[in-house]
Amino acid sequence: MKKRYDQEDSYCTSFITKVIHCEKRKDDYCIILEKTYFYPEGGGQAADQGYIGEVFVYDVHEIGGEIIHYTKEALEVGKQYECKIDWKRRFDHMQNHSGEHIVSGLIHKRYGYNNVGFHMGKVIQIDFDGPLSIEDCRIIEKEANQCIMKNVDIVASFPDITKIDYRSKKEIEGDVRIVTIEGIDACACCGTHVRKTGEIGCIKILSVEKHKQGVRLEMIAGMRAYSYLAKIYEENHKVSVSLSAPMEDIATYVEHLKEENERLKKEKDTILEEYFTLKIQQNINTEFYIDYLEDKDKKAIRNYANMALEKGYETVAIFNKHEDVYDYLFLSHTMDVRRIAKMINEKANGQGGGKEDMVQGRIHCTKEEIEEMMGVIVNGR
Ligand SMILES: [Zn+2]
Hints:
It is a single chain. The chain starts with a helix and ends with a helix. Helix 2 (87-111) crosses helix 3 and helix 5 (250-282) packs parallel to helix 6 (298-310). The mean pLDDT is 94. The protein folds into three domains: 5-85, Elongation Factor Tu (Ef-tu), domain 3 (Beta Barrel); 91-230, Threonyl-trna Synthetase, Chain A, domain 2 (Threonyl-tRNA Synthetase, Chain A, domain 2, 2-Layer Sandwich), CATH 3.30.980.10; 283-380, Diaminopimelate Epimerase, Chain A, domain 1, CATH 3.10.310.40. 36% of the residues lie in helices and 30% in strands. The chain is built from eight helices and 19 strands. Strands 4-3-7-1-2-6-5 form a seven-stranded antiparallel beta sheet, with no helix packed on it. The chain has 381 residues and is an alpha+beta fold. It binds zinc ion. Zinc ion (ZN) binds at residues 43, 97, 101, 187, 189, 191. The site of zinc ion has 6 residues, from helix 2.
């Protein structure tokens, strides 16, 4: 296997080297460099991106010991190029990968669980082979951030693995690269890491959920964690200003608002029911009950129609106005209301349907037009 310069110096972002191979494969060009600091996807860490000369490298893989850089344009074999690694992306990977080692190391130390899966996407997902609660994670998160503040060394080396204790996802032999975080962790790893824990800045555990035999934990670190927390702060600040409530107590305040909202909803339902009862009582007693409302919710309309049916009406038609359309609901014990719906849908550019004893829909017309149509239906049936 070729020497991994990216692992030797994770901070090298620009270098000059020769293209030794360029091959077209479908829409891509596969480039091999004489010497490269580009990180190939592996060990859960995403590949680097960057430039070889002016040509964008969008992906990097290690295949059969060769590091392949994928581009959309060809490069000249034998020519020297200046190469640049997208440092913002790489450093973000370093901060998050090192952060992951701290969290996995601390969980292993405290609970003895193993990291059995690791994926770096928008958030860092780590799978462990044992149960953890969110409270456990809060303790780990605090310790992880204390480890950042201690600013201890992170060192990659190739020690005699028979003589040390280290974490590894699989059985390995021979030369094994061990990443050690002083006093916290030693783990077999091919990734790029920061030199000191302080460079991680901060670690935030976002969630923990049951997964297979253990849990899946989601976390972020570094600038990514800062940006996320800053965004959360901004949103909370807006809520705090809008509610005139202190940010520290915002959850309690929102809880009170929810309770108040529930109480008001119940109060509104009671008032509406009393109002509907009065309306039904005042209506001249016919078998056909028709009424017009405005901006009432569906549940209230349904209750109203049922109340009228219970009071002895055979057929009930409720029209509920929203801006310039009417929603309708027809219920009946004695007639097929689909017939009425069909008739008014045709006349008033409407749509809707349902069962023999219940239909609902929407029509586009005025109250006068509805009254005229209903007059024909009631009198002419
Ligand atoms: Zn690692």
